């Protein structure tokens, strides 16, 4: 029986998941020429190119696509047999977790998760940083452990939805024109305070959620919920928020929370991670806290 270098499985998986020899070599902590030599071995073994260069990426051939789930399963079985896989104890972990999160999640939703992390792994350090427009590089290079962002915001990363909510309109209790209901005409004629997507000033509610959002008269753009209170409480300006967030954040004696006068797609948040951390036992534990925790915020109006 022909002997097969089992290390080639790890090299193949890294190339497949990174789609780039330089990134795969960095992930494996070997030189790019060395990885190129291993790729040649793989090609010789399977008599197929396996990966074809297109622009700046390596795209897998049909043979590579067939091999990936087989190699991935083999890697998973071997990894799970190692002692460190079974010996991982959160209470003994002193890792520093870096989580990139939107302001809306870090101020209202994320505390639930952070409390759970601190409870299960009290020696860990948790660092929350702002979202950047392109998180793919930082998370690939393991500068970031997880990203919490709008669903579908990072299509190149693995993800799972963790939270969603209905929307409502928020306005002052003293609003001069809006009482217990808001009409579509009132909604579109009013001045809106818009919550932007942190550092890159993109509206968090887009035409994907409803074409109505593109027709709003935006008077002010803010990227922190903390800045909304005085603006809404003391003016006839309005804002649109997830119901649970509005209930949790605003003073009910000073605002009205009203149903939107049109249909829309409910916004949601997802947790994102890179494929190179998919089988990492510590990262798996962290993801499970996000995906198993019931994120409940009151959404009653």
From TrEMBL:
Tell me where in this chain the HTH lysR-type domain is found: 4-61
* Keyword set includes Protease: no
PROSITE patterns xrefs: HTH_LYSR
Q: Which UniProt keywords apply?
A: DNA-binding, Transcription, Transcription regulation
The Gene Ontology terms for molecular function here are: DNA binding; DNA-binding transcription factor activity
Q: Name one Pfam family in it.
A: LysR_substrate
Question: Which PANTHER family does the UniProt record give?
Answer: HTH-TYPE TRANSCRIPTIONAL REGULATOR LEUO-RELATED (PTHR30118), TRANSCRIPTIONAL REGULATORY PROTEIN (PTHR30118:SF15)
Similarity comment: Belongs to the LysR transcriptional regulatory family.
Name of this protein: LysR family transcriptional regulator
Its source organism is: Vibrio chagasii
